[in-house]
Structures are given as structure tokens and as C-alpha cells.
Amino acid sequence: MVIAVIAVGVSLVVMTLPDADAARLDEEGARLTALLETARAESRTSGVAVWWVPRSAGDSLVGAQGQDQHFQFVGLPKALALPGRWLDARVAAQVVGARAVVLGPEAILPAQRIVLSLGERRLELASDGLGPFSVAEPLPAERRP
């Protein structure tokens, strides 16, 4: 009887623990939205066009220090060197309907969507072109990349 009670207690604790991959993906999403908004603000301030480009499968992106990059900000001045690597190297990103995200300098941009994935987990970030990027409801299966 004691073993059964302990087993039930352990199973309840395990079910309430957050999924590690989901937590990592949420952290990467929050970090990426902050980076995108930083680059967007710099683009608008300087008047220089800036794009965020994720690495595609099979592509190689190399940063200024010769380090392999997971994504890069094209158009930013070298003085503003934003990170180009995920905190977890298993994260992948894809821009829906394009190869890159346009960050400015125009005040009104097209609506854009980024899909982050880690294992079986997916997180979608979107902007309507006016507001900042934020977590969005997933697209229906027929509209996914």
C-alpha cells in the first residue's frame, strides 16, 4: 500500500514538472523577440535596411569571429554585434513564406512569421508589421512551411 501511495505521488510530481524542451523553446522565443526588436530599432534609427536570416538546413553561416552561426542580422553596423547563435544548438528556425525577416527601416513592414522548433515542440513568433514580434497561435497545417 505504501509503495502504491509513493508511486501515485511521484507520478503527480512528474506530471507537474515543466517540459524541458518547451521551456528552452520559450526562452529562445523571448530572446529572439528581444533581438529582433533591438535590430528593428537600430534599423529605424540609422535608416539602414536590416534583415534577420536563419540558417537553412545544409547552409553554413559564419560570423565575424569565424564562428558557425545559427542566424545573422544582415545590415547592422559591426559596432552593434548581436548574437548569432541559439542558447540550445538543437533549435531550428524558419521564416514562413520568405528566406529572411525584414526589420526596417520603414515604419510599416509586411506581416511576418517565424517558426522555432526544438524536437517535436514548435513555437511561432509573428508581427503584423506595426507591432513587435510576439508568440502567436500556430498556423493551420495547410499553411505551415
Explain what you see.
By secondary structure, the protein is of the alpha+beta class. The protein has one domain (19-143): minor pseudopilin epsh domain (minor pseudopilin epsh fold), CATH 3.55.40. The chain is 29% helix and 26% strand. The chain contains two helices and nine strands. The strands form three sheets. The protein has a four-stranded antiparallel beta sheet, covered by helices on one side. Strand 7 (112-118) and strand 8 form a beta hairpin. The chain is elongated. The N and C termini lie far apart (52 Å). The mean pLDDT is 87.
Sequence-ordered SSE layout with sheet pairings:
Layout (H helix, E strand, L loop, with lengths): L1 H15 L3 H27 L3 E5 L6 E2 L5 E2 L1 E4 L17 E4 L5 E4 L7 E7 L2 E7 L6 E3 L9
Antiparallel strand pairs: 1-4, 1-6, 2-3, 5-7, 7-8, 8-9
Brief overview, please?
The chain is 29% helix and 26% strand. The chain has 145 residues and is α+β, with helices and mostly antiparallel strands.
